[in-house]
């Protein structure tokens, strides 16, 4: 008997990887959705046994999709598969009715254990554990690979930040772009949104891949961070700078760790350089002048629940790193 499966993820690579990870014994009849609204529309028109659901998506994210499934009384086993692995995110999806949570990249043993719990008669059949093949898989682009790799890495950074401050971090979709230096400076101005900012710049390298990480915090964000950490509002400038450095080290280190897992490289960080406190964005731009001609960038803006905290994280890889990154991710490019 076939199991009807819906895979909902905005990433074409993630949809393809999920489909190929399903065992042949499941005899899966697979459909795809690109976001929550798409999934809900399909759930209205067809009964599915399992929904594999991402959290960070446009239109309607995974949390909103779970809420609608509950509200509409849709009977389906939901398995969340996400790079957003922070504890409060996992607690929230389970409270909304998800049957299980699997972190990205997908671990075959974890997936098999979940399927044994949800569809034991299918998975326990004496069939070789091999990927399902009878489905038309999504066509991938090169950018799909980088978007999914960035998604996993920024999820690791959000998790580290959430655990350190005991908060829930809202995790938007990352932006992945290849910029000329003039375009990079325009992007930096857009990040700052005309606010005064505090910034930390930190170099990194590993396996020939190199670049700069930039962490920007608005002045209002620093004030709220002090409240979370119970730092007196009248604290001196040194304490504020230490707090900013702490946030930067958490985000940069955990992002590079998440990236390193996927590219098979260990990254080393240089000592962080304070760009100053309450400086204009032009000072930040001047600090990058001459560093890059062209760069691939991963960018995300984290916000913390019930605060005004916004932290912009930008990773800039020098242009020479691009072919090296491609080579390290060749196992994913083979999916193209």
What would your notes on this structure say?
- Strands 6, 7, 8, 9, 10, 11, 12 and 13 form an eight-stranded antiparallel sheet that branches. Strands 2-1-3-4-5 form a five-stranded parallel sheet, with helices on both faces.
- It is globular, with a radius of gyration of 21 Å.
- It is an alpha/beta fold and 336 residues long.
- It has two domains: 3-123, Rossmann fold, CATH 3.40.50; 142-333, CheC-like (Chemotaxis protein chec, 3-Layer(aba) Sandwich).
- The protein is 44% helix and 25% strand.
Short description:
The protein is α/β, with parallel strands linked by helices and 336 residues long.
The CATH level-2 architecture of the largest domain is identified as 3-Layer(aba) Sandwich
Report how far apart the termini are. Answer: 31 Å
User: Helical region count?
Assistant: 13
Largest sheet: 8 strands, antiparallel
| Uncertain residue ranges | 127-134
Decide which structural class fits the backbone: alpha/beta
Shape descriptor reads globular
- Share of helix, binned: 40-55%
Question: Measured on Cα atoms, how large is the radius of gyration?
Answer: 21 Å
The count of DSSP E runs of length 2 or more, i.e. the number of strands, is 13
- Tell me, rounded to a whole number, the average pLDDT: 87
CATH homologous superfamily of the largest domain - what is it? CheC-like
What is the CATH T-level topology of the largest domain? Chemotaxis protein chec
């Amino acid at each position: 008997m076939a199991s009807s499966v819906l895979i909902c993820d905005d990433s074409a690579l993630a949809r393809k990887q999920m489909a190929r990870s399903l065992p042949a014994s499941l005899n899966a009849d697979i459909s795809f959705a690109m976001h929550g609204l798409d999934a809900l529309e399909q759930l209205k028109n067809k009964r599915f046994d399992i929904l594999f659901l991402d959290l960070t998506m446009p239109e309607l994210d995974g949390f909103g999709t779970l809420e609608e499934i509950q509200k509409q009384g849709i009977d389906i086993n939901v398995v969340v598969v996400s790079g957003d692995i922070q504890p409060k995110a996992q607690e929230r999806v389970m409270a909304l009715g998800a049957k299980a949570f699997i972190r990205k990249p997908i671990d075959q043993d974890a997936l098999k254990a979940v399927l044994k719990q949800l569809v034991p008669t299918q998975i326990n059949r004496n069939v070789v554990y091999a990927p399902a093949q009878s489905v038309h898989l999504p066509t991938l682009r090169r950018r799909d690979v980088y978007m999914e790799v960035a998604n996993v890495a920024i999820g690791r950074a959000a998790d580290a930040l959430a655990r350190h401050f005991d908060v829930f971090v809202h995790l938007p979709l990352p932006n992945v772009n290849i910029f000329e230096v003039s375009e990079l400076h325009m992007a930096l101005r857009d990040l700052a949104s005309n606010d005064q900012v505090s910034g930390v710049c930190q170099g990194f390298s590993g396996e020939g891949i190199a670049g700069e990480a930039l962490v920007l915090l608005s002045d209002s964000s620093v004030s709220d961070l002090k409240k979370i950490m119970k730092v007196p509002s009248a604290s001196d400038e040194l304490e504020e700078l230490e707090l900013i450095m702490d946030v930067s080290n958490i985000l940069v280190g955990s992002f590079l760790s998440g990236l390193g897992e996927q590219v098979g490289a260990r990254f080393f960080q240089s000592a962080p350089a304070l760009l100053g406190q309450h400086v204009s964005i032009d000072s930040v731009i001047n600090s990058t002048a001459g560093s890059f001609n062209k760069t691939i960038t991963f960018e995300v803006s984290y916000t913390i629940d019930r605060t005004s905290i916004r932290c912009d994280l930008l990773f800039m890889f020098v242009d020479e790193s691009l072919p090296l990154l491609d080579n390290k991710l060749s196992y994913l490019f083979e999916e193209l």
